[in-house]
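Retro notes - structure team

What went well: the batch runner handled both jobs without manual restarts.
What didn't: labels got mixed up in the shared folder, which is why I'm recording both outputs here explicitly, each with its sequence directly above its tokens.

Job 1
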Amino acid sequence: MILRKLKLTNFRNHRAKILELSPTTIIIGPNTCGKTNVLEAIYILSRGKSFRAEHDKDTIREGAEFAEIQAIIESPSPLPLSPEGRGNKGEGDNSVERIGLKVIFSLQKGYLSKKFLVNGVARRQHDFTSNFVSVLFTPHDIELITSSPSSRRKYIDSILYQSGKNYRIALSTYERALKHRNRMLYDIKEGAKQYRTSDFDYFNKILIEQGSMLTNKRAEFVDFVNGSNKNIFDFTLFYDKSEMSEARLFKYHFEEQKAGVTLVGPQRDDFKFFFPIPKSASHILL
């Protein structure tokens, strides 16, 4: 999968920029010229959202009403698209498939509208993601080992988010249900409203079902990492999971009412790194 062409319109500091790209491309330029903005645009083509903007509307160039990212992707094999969204074969090469991707962020009466298109056909964000897969590594990612558990969860989610539609749907469904449940717990803590235990049943069911999917996929990812060859340095990744189950929700229900937040589930997971000490059977845990 190769990114051949990138066109930016009103994206960050790029009013109109077209980049013709090679299989290996190095972008060089002075500070503030927009190098990171190009990486951000590529990331949006993979995830449908920015990796650094608090709000996607922040990517729209100041004074403009919309930002547009267009790209031509080439793949040596068919991408997982429906027939109407499949691209054309590259000229002179029947083994290459060419896909046109477009993302549009537009402001309408102060609200952000997002459009995702594959070869001109509109797609939902869940279906758009993974047509182009990318890996982003920034200087901040070096801190993953020593930073907070939430940063490690976010990074691993960013990888699994591209691995399949089921994970994307499970994650978004889980996060919506968790937000509602936490709102109920917060109301109880603040004395704003009282709920019966049965009032939590609907959201508990969603969290258990979708949480199980997230936990299983994260466990599979950890097994994959631990079973892979480490070219630079050896390490073992340990999955410190917080199981989401009916029994655990019942066990911590009163503590959750006091805390005003859900205390169990994948949002409490952590991933720890073990580094072997040379000439010793001991390990360093970070």
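Job 2
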Amino acid sequence: MNFRKIPTVLTPEEIIEKCFRRVRKVQVVDPDRLYRLRKLNAGKVQAFADTASSTLLKYVRAFPTIEALHPFYRELIDLGVDVDRLKVSLGRIQGIASTVSEIGRGKVKEIMKMRSQEEMMRAQREALGRMVSAVKRARDPLMVLSEAREFMRRLPEIDPKTPTVIIAGYPNVGKSSLTSALSTAKPEISTYPFTTKGVSVGVLEMGGRRVQVVDTPGMLDREPAERNEIERKASSALRNLPGVVLFLVDPTETCGYPIEMQLSLLQKLSEEFPQMRFFVVFTKSDMEEWTLPNVKEVKVDEERIAGWGVVSSTTREGIEELKRALSALLLDEP
């Protein structure tokens, strides 16, 4: 889903100015003076009505129907958008567009029956005034749409059907470094507003196919009951992405967390995400204080563990082996 296609939402003043620019361009050439005056005044009213209503309806059509989106996107949007308020605002804007169109149609019919130039011009001014007032009533809902657009445009463009790797673990265990090391080129990484540290989404090429990598720094490092609302919603969003969880463990404990706490988090996540497979990776193997933990201490159902790996993002030890393992898991390639 590409939310970047949602157009810039103009203010009422900008929409009104856009309409009057169109009004000023209206010209009518006809030898019949009465007919020419009718068409000129009616044309100005119609130009304003068409421009205003089409602009407003463009916004309504550009926003997706939230219920029709994949659960992953619904969870993401709910992080920063009041969905109910957005729906109400879209409804109000659609209603205002309809009101403007009705005003325009009604006045055009009246003007086309008039015989006095003064009467026509008075009707034109009345129609334009009413339509300007209607557009100004869209100020609040347009502001809601503008704020929602800004948030949604920053969301990752993810295909839920594309193979996905979710990188999890405590902070400073090497998640971002591994995300970069897994790719022959620098991954396309952007930060999105899940937490103060953010969540990154990378795109890697693996076996000639696209693989999505979701890096979750600082998001899953607490007990579920202790997470704030944003962290809980982010966890719920990730639950909707099929794939493999690449769980990183720092045996050197230079990340600031004991190995016991890291393995305990692995157990908790495996229980929280029962539908996911976990590939456990021991990082920082290039450091002198590195020792391989006793994997028998990992209290996770063996069927949930898709594999084990040892890597160093600095020396690239184990990177190619890890890529081959992920390729086999995600792309069914040996």
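One thing worth noting from job 2: Residues 33-62 form the longest helix (30 residues).
We'll revisit the folder naming next retro.
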